Amino acid sequence: MKYTTTQWDETIVALATPPGIGAIGVIRLSGPKAIDIINSLFPSKDLAAQASHTVHVGYLKANGKAIDEVVVTLFKGPKSYTGENVVEISGHGSPFVLQQIIDACIAAGCRLAKPGEFTQRAFLNGKLDLTQAEAVADLIASNTAASHKNALHNIRGGFSAELKALREQLISFSALIELELDFSQEDVEFADRSQLYGLVSGAIERVSKLAHSFQLGNVIKNGVSVAIVGKPNAGKSTLLNTLLNENRAIVSDIAGTTRDTIEEILNIDGILFRFIDTAGIREHTSDQIESIGVEKSLEKMRQADVVLYLFDVNSMPVEELVAVKEEFDKNGFRYLLVGNQVDKGDEAFVRDRYAKAAPFLLIAAKQGLHIEVLKERLVDMVLQGEVTTEDTIVTNARHFHSLQQMLQSLSDIRAGLDNRIPGDLLALDIRRALHYLGEITGEVSNEDLLDYIFSKFCIGK
């Protein structure tokens, strides 16, 4: 998505609501001629003479023919989303009618907007910084309460505010150290090294926390994959059906019924869990199709964020369960051992029997016994109690990478202060930290990066 200077002077148009039939469709224009173009198609009123943030009803016409009765909303720059003149046309939601309106706007002097161009103009005009602009896309894509809350927090500048305060302090110290270089012959220090040390130490702690939050942020944004594995007839498909509260997987007493993996998504406390019901794992089977299913199960287990190992408390040998636990530990899996069909025996006896393999959960999938406890444990495994959704949470891989680089630069500054390195070298480390901080907010950016970021937006945003 390459732009020339003249392209930023053009007026753009796009459908801002999803394509398809609906009651209302909204078309957005932005640019210096937005009001003039709609004014030429809207004979009911002189829009150029109207105040900003006003709504007007009338017929939109092209070549003397009425296209639709519409509602026109005016937003005069710079008090608009993009910082430019913006007009939004609310018309009836016929795809044919909406396309007629867009065609009329193009004939009158607009061009079609590129993906994310409205928000990119808002960024370039100083209405949003880059983290806020990216949060707009996250808000549009949010599908849980947690992802919605985090995106809204960042749009309001929660993440930006933390970085802005740190940036201003680092710039202040950098300026003082640069000033020292001008008086190097006098051997004076304008920057209080102890104060800078305290600032950097506090920044390292905060940036480390932000970087660490990416693990949770990735979960909030993309969900958690949970592979349900175990021996044939352990009740994996029954558990999936119970979690979903529907008969999604085929259940039978015949070993090897599930031949392929089945994936379903469940929202638990605002986090998306993608449960994967796998074929039962057994070492020897003469069925070629089942063998392929077992291999897929092992592959899904290696790829999953969490492995839920389900075992039948009435048939699983203790030593075998202990061996499974040791194997999972050795491979570094995040796992949960879950004993099924506890309703068929004494729960206290079962707990004592499998004490060597603790910790584990006991459930009865078919009866729905302790399923809520299982859900709570899964959420606890993801959140780990270390970061709460009230904090600023990093969900963007680009931000995470820049935070890691920034953390290294801050560590270099602190090490330089410990070793009392010269001011010119200290200034270099501070400038490097400011560079990575600016990459996040967009104060340091390049055209290719911006093109990539905004190309992932929808057309009308």
Gist?
With 461 residues, this protein is of the alpha/beta class.
Which structural traits does this protein have?
alpha/beta, Rossmann fold, six-stranded mixed beta sheet, 17% strand, flat
Shape descriptor = flat
Share in helix: 40-55%
Number of domains: 3
**CATH class division of the largest domain:** Alpha Beta
Q: Examine the coordinates and then state which fold CATH places here, giving the name of the CATH topology of the largest domain.
A: Rossmann fold
Instruction: Write down the Rg.
Output: 30 Å
Judged by helices, strands and strand pairing, the structural class is alpha/beta
Strand content: 15-25%
Describe the structure.
The strands form two sheets. The protein has a six-stranded mixed beta sheet with strand order 3-4-5-2-1-6. The chain has a six-stranded mixed beta sheet with strand order 8-9-7-10-11-12, sandwiched between helices. The chain contains 16 helices and twelve strands. The protein has three domains: 125 residues, Gyrase A, domain 2 (2-Layer Sandwich); 129 residues, Four Helix Bundle (Hemerythrin (Met), subunit A), CATH 1.20.120; 164 residues, Rossmann fold, CATH 3.40.50. Helices cover 46% and strands 17% of the residues. The chain has 461 residues and is of the alpha/beta class. The protein is flat.
Write the layout of secondary structure elements.
Elements: E1 12-15, E2 22-30, H1 34-41, E3 54-62, E4 65-75, E5 86-93, H2 95-107, E6 111-112, H3 117-124, H4 130-141, H5 145-155, H6 158-182, H7 193-212, H8 214-222, E7 224-230, H9 236-244, E8 262-268, E9 271-277, H10 288-303, E10 306-312, H11 318-330, E11 335-340, H12 347-353, E12 361-362, H13 371-383, H14 397-418, H15 423-441, H16 447-455
Parallel strand pairs: 1-6, 7-9, 7-10, 10-11, 11-12
Antiparallel strand pairs: 1-2, 2-5, 3-4, 4-5, 8-9
Helix pairs in contact: 4-5, 6-15, 7-14, 14-15
